[in-house]
């Protein structure tokens, strides 16, 4: 079985890919360089892909800086020390990013003759992005079956979200049980010039919370 896995280099996508592999899928990993300010994640994705021994790792360049609208694709500052219980959508939201990424993954899956796409979205310990919700995934899955030749000919595309209902701590526990090395990953939205995590953006705070609740040290901070 073949599966396309969106691989960002973060711990969530790494874990989702490992789960797909544990279920018997041959991994076709897709990493998208979208003009993000934190390019360290591309290097992390390469390390993760190598560690997993993926069948193929496709890197695509799709510069979203022309669209802008996000602290990750513009000079807009990355929020620090944000109240994660707030209901507003933060400046790190990239307009329609998961819709765009899943569309590219779907196109590759159709070319490969694969019916399965994995994405590491999470709807519990996350920053409130609308394209991480189960209803979005269900809608995209329906669209995928309508908008492709393979779908019209009977393919039943499935968008797998194995982490969507897990806490960050649960995700980390699942990954450790699969033998994952989270020192390979990168999570920070706003690393310094040496690639070190800021410790204050949403992603850093959620990662720290997850490792603390899982009761294990973060290997990036405690090698």
**Overall 3D form:** globular
Low-confidence stretches: none
The biggest beta sheet, please? 5 strands, parallel
CATH class: Alpha Beta
Structural class: alpha/beta
Record the strand order, biggest sheet.
3-2-1-4-5
In CATH, the topology is named Rossmann fold
Q: Provide the succession of SSEs.
A: EHEHEHEHHEHH
Rg over C-alpha atoms, rounded to the nearest angstrom = 17 Å
Strand content: 5-15%
Task: Report the CATH architecture.
Answer: 3-Layer(aba) Sandwich
* Proportion of residues in helical segments: 25-40%
Task: Report the average pLDDT across residues.
Answer: 94
Could you describe the 3D structure shown?
The longest helix is centred in the middle third of the chain and has 16 residues, at 97-112. The model has no long low-confidence stretch (mean pLDDT 94). The chain is globular. Helix 1 runs parallel beside helix 2 and helix 1 crosses helix 6 (168-177). It has helices at 11-22, 40-52, 97-112, 134-147, 149-152, 168-177, 202-214; strands at residues 2-6, 26-33, 56-61, 116-118, 158-160. Helices cover 37% and strands 11% of the residues. The chain has one domain (2-214): 3-Layer(aba) Sandwich (Rossmann fold), CATH 3.40.50.620. The protein has 223 residues and is of the alpha/beta class. The chain is built from seven helices and five strands, in the order E-H-E-H-E-H-E-H-H-E-H-H. It has a five-stranded parallel sheet with strand order 3-2-1-4-5, with helices on both faces.
């Amino acid at each position: 079985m073949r599966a396309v896995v969106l691989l960002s280099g973060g711990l969530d996508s790494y874990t989702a890919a490992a789960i797909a592999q544990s279920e018997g899928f041959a991994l076709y990993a897709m990493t998208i360089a979208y003009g993000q300010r934190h390019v360290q994640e591309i290097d992390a994705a390469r390390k993760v892909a190598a560690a997993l021994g993926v069948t193929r790792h496709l890197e695509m360049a799709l510069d979203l800086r022309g669209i802008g609208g996000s602290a990750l694709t513009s000079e807009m500052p990355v929020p620090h020390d944000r109240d994660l219980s707030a209901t507003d959508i933060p400046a790190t939201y990239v307009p329609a990013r998961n819709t765009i990424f899943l569309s590219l993954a779907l196109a590759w899956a159709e070319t490969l003759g694969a019916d399965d796409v994995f994405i590491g979205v999470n709807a519990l310990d996350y920053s409130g992005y609308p394209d991480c919700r189960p209803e979005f995934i269900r809608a995209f899955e329906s669209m995928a079956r309508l908008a492709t030749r393979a779908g019209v000919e009977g393919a039943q595309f499935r968008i797998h979200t194995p982490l969507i209902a897990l806490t960050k701590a649960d995700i980390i526990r699942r990954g450790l049980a699969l033998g994952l090395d989270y020192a390979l990953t990168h999570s920070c939205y706003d690393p310094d010039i040496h690639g070190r995590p800021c410790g204050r953006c949403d992603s850093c705070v959620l990662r720290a919370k997850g490792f603390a609740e899982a009761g294990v040290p973060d290997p990036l901070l405690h090698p």
